[in-house]
Amino acid sequence: MTEADFDVEYVERDDRSARVLIRGLTPAFANGIRRAMIADVPTFSIDTVRFVENSSVMFDEMIGLRLGLVPLTTPLDEFEIGDTVTLALDVEGPATAYSGDIESAEAMVEPADENVPIVELKEGQRLEFEADAVLEAGKEHAKHQGGVSVGYRHLQRVSVEGDRGEFDDEEPRILRGVIETPEGEVVATDEFGNDLSERYPGKEVRVEDVPGAFVFHIETDGSFTVEELLLRAIDSIEERADELRTKVAV
Amino acid sequence: MMIPVRCFTCGNVVGEHWEEFKERAREGEEDPGEVLDDLGVNRHCCRRMLVSHRDLVDVVSPYQ
């Protein structure tokens, strides 16, 4: 590969969502990273449930489906694809069984959100089961996707062309994403209501894509942090490239 | 029957916000849109999950 000069900048950063500006990417590589984040980074998800008692209003299968969708924290350093962790729940009505009531055999793998209702139990109803969570990649089943609504846009450069014509109407200029101002600042458009006429009133502005600069919007379901997701996606691309190299070299 | 765990469209976890949403916007007087903003449910695909949901456990339970 030619000498790539990547430049990474976090525009917004939280535990579960972030916007990251990466310069020096080709569109193909940016899409590769996006797809790796969605399909190739594995997370734990409940896959098999053994019901001991279910006298709730929902069928076993309905509860099984709901359990699969509960995000579980996934320390990827400790586990490999295919590893399982046993979880259990025992709740007697009248009460609501929450994801936080699920007990895990492994302290590192537990529900990422505690307040997800599984099923509401009435007087005399009971839910007890044992379940196996499996570490798998998003391409096997969507419940294993760690990234939620992962996408990217071009960074857009805004330049001021001059003053607006004296008798021209002030029209809104709606723009979404992240812009680079003439001063070289990187600003998210929601800071000025997604309207360039708010930020540059009375000016004639031009907007163009910055080549090779992509702003990723990344959210995770709580299995791991955004940074972890991005790093693991890049690792998975690297792993596949390495494998290809060894196969070609032989 | 119960609030779906995740948004059908984007896969964001919405189930955890249901009880607070119900308490504040359905049983309380607050504006549903403002409650959703407050809960951090921003996309309209996720918002419709909560806005259009109806609990049916109480309706179904007598027929067990």
TrEMBL record, chain A:
<dbReference type="InterPro" id="IPR011262">
    <property type="entry name" value="DNA-dir_RNA_pol_insert"/>
</dbReference>
<dbReference type="GO" id="GO:0003677">
    <property type="term" value="F:DNA binding"/>
</dbReference>
<dbReference type="InterPro" id="IPR022842">
    <property type="entry name" value="RNAP_Rpo3/Rpb3/RPAC1"/>
</dbReference>
<keyword id="KW-0804">Transcription</keyword>
<keyword id="KW-0808">Transferase</keyword>
<dbReference type="InterPro" id="IPR011263">
    <property type="entry name" value="DNA-dir_RNA_pol_RpoA/D/Rpb3"/>
</dbReference>
<dbReference type="InterPro" id="IPR036643">
    <property type="entry name" value="RNApol_insert_sf"/>
</dbReference>
<comment type="function">
    <text>DNA-dependent RNA polymerase (RNAP) catalyzes the transcription of DNA into RNA using the four ribonucleoside triphosphates as substrates.</text>
</comment>
<dbReference type="InterPro" id="IPR001514">
    <property type="entry name" value="DNA-dir_RNA_pol_30-40kDasu_CS"/>
</dbReference>
<dbReference type="InterPro" id="IPR036603">
    <property type="entry name" value="RBP11-like"/>
</dbReference>
<keyword id="KW-0963">Cytoplasm</keyword>
<keyword id="KW-0548">Nucleotidyltransferase</keyword>
<dbReference type="Pfam" id="PF01000">
    <property type="entry name" value="RNA_pol_A_bac"/>
</dbReference>
<dbReference type="GO" id="GO:0003899">
    <property type="term" value="F:DNA-directed RNA polymerase activity"/>
</dbReference>
<keyword id="KW-0240">DNA-directed RNA polymerase</keyword>
<dbReference type="GO" id="GO:0000428">
    <property type="term" value="C:DNA-directed RNA polymerase complex"/>
</dbReference>
<dbReference type="InterPro" id="IPR050518">
    <property type="entry name" value="Rpo3/RPB3_RNA_Pol_subunit"/>
</dbReference>
<dbReference type="GO" id="GO:0006351">
    <property type="term" value="P:DNA-templated transcription"/>
</dbReference>
<dbReference type="GO" id="GO:0046983">
    <property type="term" value="F:protein dimerization activity"/>
</dbReference>
<dbReference type="GO" id="GO:0005737">
    <property type="term" value="C:cytoplasm"/>
</dbReference>
<feature type="domain" description="DNA-directed RNA polymerase RpoA/D/Rpb3-type">
    <location>
        <begin position="17"/>
        <end position="247"/>
    </location>
</feature>
<protein>
    <recommendedName>
        <fullName>DNA-directed RNA polymerase subunit Rpo3</fullName>
        <ecNumber>2.7.7.6</ecNumber>
    </recommendedName>
</protein>
Automatic annotation (TrEMBL), chain B:
<dbReference type="GO" id="GO:0000428">
    <property type="term" value="C:DNA-directed RNA polymerase complex"/>
</dbReference>
<keyword id="KW-0862">Zinc</keyword>
<comment type="subunit">
    <text>Part of the RNA polymerase complex.</text>
</comment>
<keyword id="KW-0808">Transferase</keyword>
<dbReference type="InterPro" id="IPR000268">
    <property type="entry name" value="RPABC5/Rpb10"/>
</dbReference>
<dbReference type="Pfam" id="PF01194">
    <property type="entry name" value="RNA_pol_N"/>
</dbReference>
<comment type="function">
    <text>DNA-dependent RNA polymerase (RNAP) catalyzes the transcription of DNA into RNA using the four ribonucleoside triphosphates as substrates.</text>
</comment>
<comment type="similarity">
    <text>Belongs to the archaeal Rpo10/eukaryotic RPB10 RNA polymerase subunit family.</text>
</comment>
<keyword id="KW-0963">Cytoplasm</keyword>
<keyword id="KW-0548">Nucleotidyltransferase</keyword>
<dbReference type="InterPro" id="IPR020789">
    <property type="entry name" value="RNA_pol_suN_Zn-BS"/>
</dbReference>
<dbReference type="GO" id="GO:0006351">
    <property type="term" value="P:DNA-templated transcription"/>
</dbReference>
<dbReference type="InterPro" id="IPR023580">
    <property type="entry name" value="RNA_pol_su_RPB10"/>
</dbReference>
<keyword id="KW-0804">Transcription</keyword>
<feature type="binding site">
    <location>
        <position position="45"/>
    </location>
    <ligand>
        <name>Zn(2+)</name>
    </ligand>
</feature>
<feature type="binding site">
    <location>
        <position position="46"/>
    </location>
    <ligand>
        <name>Zn(2+)</name>
    </ligand>
</feature>
<keyword id="KW-0479">Metal-binding</keyword>
<feature type="binding site">
    <location>
        <position position="10"/>
    </location>
    <ligand>
        <name>Zn(2+)</name>
    </ligand>
</feature>
<dbReference type="GO" id="GO:0008270">
    <property type="term" value="F:zinc ion binding"/>
</dbReference>
<keyword id="KW-0240">DNA-directed RNA polymerase</keyword>
<protein>
    <recommendedName>
        <fullName>DNA-directed RNA polymerase subunit Rpo10</fullName>
        <ecNumber>2.7.7.6</ecNumber>
    </recommendedName>
</protein>
<feature type="binding site">
    <location>
        <position position="7"/>
    </location>
    <ligand>
        <name>Zn(2+)</name>
    </ligand>
</feature>
